[in-house]
Each structure stands twice: as C-alpha cells, then as structure tokens.
Task: structure prediction
Amino acid sequence: MSNTPIRLQIILGSTRPVRAGEAIARWVSDVASARTDFEVELIDLAQVNLPLLDEPRQPSQGDYQHEHTRRWSATIRRGDAVIFVLPEYNHSFNAATKNAVDFLYEEWRYKSAGIVCYGGGARGTRAAQHFKTVLSALKMTHVGDVAVGLSEVPVVDGALAATPQMTRALTTLLNETARLSPHLRSLREDAGIAPH
Ligand SMILES: Cc1cc2nc3c(=O)[nH]c(=O)nc-3n(C[C@H](O)[C@H](O)[C@H](O)COP(=O)(O)O)c2cc1C
Result:
C-alpha cells in the first residue's frame, strides 16, 4: 500500500443560509487536517449549487449532459473517502444531500463513507440510519457515525464546542477511514474507476 495521503472529502449537506452544519463541518475538517494521513477538501453543497436532478440518463451510465453534473462528477472523482455532515430533517436526512448523491453513481463506488449526523434529541441518528441504506445502494463502505446533539453541544458564535468524547469518536471514524482507504483505492483501480 502506498503512503499517498488519503483525499478526504467532507460534504456539508445543509444548504440553509444560517446553519449549524457549517460549524460542525469546520470541526470535522480541523480534526482531520491536523493529521498527516489526510488531504482534506471541504465541499459545501450550498456553493456547489446543483439544481434538482435534471439529467436525462441514469447516473450509472455516466453520460452526463450538463456542465454542472460534469463539474460535480470531477469533484467527487478526485476523492478517496467521504464524510457526510448530515442534518436531521423530519426524522431523516436532508433533501440536498440526497439530490447531490443521486446525480452520480460510479464516483461514489468503493469509497469509505463516514457520517457526522446532528440534530435535537435524537442527535441526528435517524438521519444516519436512513442514509446508510443509500450508501449501501452506492456500494460505499460505511465506517462509522459521530452523533452531535445540538441541545447538549450548541453552536455558539459560529463554533462548535466539541467535547473530548466527540473528538474521540471522530478520531475513531478517521482511523477507520485511514485503515480502509488504501484497500478501497486498489478496488477502484481493479474496477477501472479512474480518479480523474
Ligand atoms: C426542515 C427541518 C426539519 C427538522 N426536523 C428535525 C427532526 O426531525 N429532528 C431533529 O432532531 N431536528 C430537526 N430539525 C432541527 C435541526 O436538526 C436543526 O435545525 C439543525 O440546526 C439543522 O441543521 P442545519 O442548521 O445545518 O441546517 C429540523 C430542522 C429543519 C430545518
């Protein structure tokens, strides 16, 4: 296995103008960036700004008609591993994340996926549970969840005051990502899935 850094993409799923997700994604990014084994890219779906899925062909055909899809495809293709920062809306994951995921297919395949979910009393765990079925459809390998309860750990002045317990849980998720990623990279190469 090579010592090439793992290209970790952190996907901030909330697109709301004022969102807790931004502080949570920054925390995840800061913890991952402090390590030497990851090259971190923070992807904000509000900036990616995809329309509702408007491709005429199925994503599994990879024959994209629109420039925004080709751009999105190139973005995800260059990554090795993903962490979804996932809000809980109405006891499930949010629509913008599902829409962004649905645009592509092969780009996700044989990559590791961690979930940092968040919400009120259930700490986003219902969103995470539902999202895992989506990950399995895409042949992504789920490597763990970190659940953030906003009523216990609120975002104050744009920052998340993460507890040591939360940071330990995130470190476990990152360790697992690092353990699997080189193997999954080989699998993608064997399947002819090119990074670029
Ligand atoms: C449309 C909507 C539905 C929500 N439904 C839930 C819910 O089912 N469970 C929950 O714990 N929180 C729920 N919340 C509260 C969110 O978890 C909280 O507002 C969080 O900050 C949303 O993430 P965001 O600010 O990054 O968009 C909901 C919020 C929105 C906007």
Observations:
- Residues 115 and 145 are 5 Å apart (CA to CA).
- The mean pLDDT is 96.
